[in-house]
Amino acid sequence: MMLIPCPHCGPRNETEFAYGGQAHVSHPEDPHALDDAAWARYLFYRENPKGLFAERWVHSAGCRRWFNAVRNTVTYEVQSVEPIGPRPPGGRPAESTTSEGGHA
Amino acid sequence: MADILFTQGPDELKRAPLAPLHRRLEEVSQPAPSTIRLAERPFTTQIGLRAVPDTAAHRSLAETLGVGLPDRVGEVTGDAADVAVLWLGPDEFLVVAPPNRSELVPLLQEALGAEPGQVVDLSANRTIIELGGSSARDVLDKGVPADLHPRVFPTGTAVTTTLGPAAVLLWRAAEENWWILPRVSFAEYTAQWLLDAVREHRLAAPDGVSDAVPDAVADPAPASAPDSREEAPWPATTA
Q1: Is the ipTM of this complex over 0.85?
Q2: B145 vs A10, A13, A64: nearest CB
């Protein structure tokens, strides 16, 4: 069971949340300009990192707000949460942090 | 904006969502003072508000209510016995007031005016189940994932959470008095869940009010019960 820190409600049980997949996947500027492969890449291809991963969650049994979270897929530790919106400057969260738990 | 007309039926036609269970709720609360009290508070006036903090709409609604709007999770402004406002989200609130305060709806709609926001009469959306007594927190701890310790959940706190699998609003209206607000469609399930959860806390009850009364015996209400669902048969004239 994960304890997820909702930015509005504070730490709550994982059971109150729903998962929204990888965060910061932007809709193509001009979908008609894409060929099938590029469109499929946008629709279906997601990262699957071992380590920190930026993903979307919604506090469906609480304040019902979406937010982004950076979670370590090895330790399940939620490292940070941020309001929904464009990717923060500074590149992928996974590269800007150095926490490496769970290898002991 | 189109005007929506709300028509209110005669009071004698009102039926509490948990009317068929009132007798059983009362039974588990006996003998007083019991370690557990269960009761329904139906027909409260409930109004959903949406307004972004620090906007004209937010200020206007807060001023009209007179008790302000809460600004963080768990906070409740006002008084549980009169008008209270619960925090549901950063820009979403629920006014809970006694049954006779429906005049608040047009009042707040007028206060909002044309500003971006919402004032919606949600009185029929949720009912209130009151859970009191010294064992109340133990009962809730069985099904609520939120931390209910007084350190983080003092009197006057309300949060949206789950009770078992059902989404509810949980409000600690007094030290040993918790108000549970399920949606009406979940009310009967929530009440049955609570009736089951309180069983072990009633083992000390003296003889004669044993908890071992089978449900089938306890259920049928006497013909005189005005709120029994059996009192509302199909119209006999249809034959």
Answers
A1: no
A2: A13
